[in-house]
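Problem 12. The chain below contains 164 residues. Write out its predicted structure in token notation.
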Amino acid sequence: MPNGYLAYLIPVLVLAMVLRRSLRSQRLKVDRLWVIPVLFVVAAVAVLTQAPPRDPAMIAVLAVVTLAGAGIGWQRGRLTRINLDPETGILTSKASPAAVVLILAIFGLRYGLNAWLLQNPHKGALAVDAADALLLFGVGALGVARIEMWIRCKRLIAAGAGIA
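Solution.
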């Protein structure tokens, strides 16, 4: 297998494992939902401080892309099924098929953009901007999905305790 295919095979295998795992119910640790988004924000800040966008228009584009990611994340968080076992008080989550389609669409967009940039190698600055945009899109999507799930978990817990 040529090395060029390996660059596509590994992410596809990782995506398949993530999708397979997300379609199974798994225990939710509400108090830890914030950890991964915070790590992503720290990584994004580190990347953007190394090579900050210089163009005010690009800063605006990055803000819009982050907001678009937040919108997608809210939908993904909203589509995630969350259940509370009344006897044990354990929360479980399972991605809905629509959330899985959403993840696949995002990966498809990323690979389409990558293919276009490879066909247009003179667009080096655009590639950096696109990478920044995809990073911030992911941060927005992941962060807001986790916030939406946390809010829903808190409501379920309150309703389960008779507080709702």
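Discussion. The mean pLDDT is 81. Students who got a different answer should revisit the alignment rule from Section 12.3.
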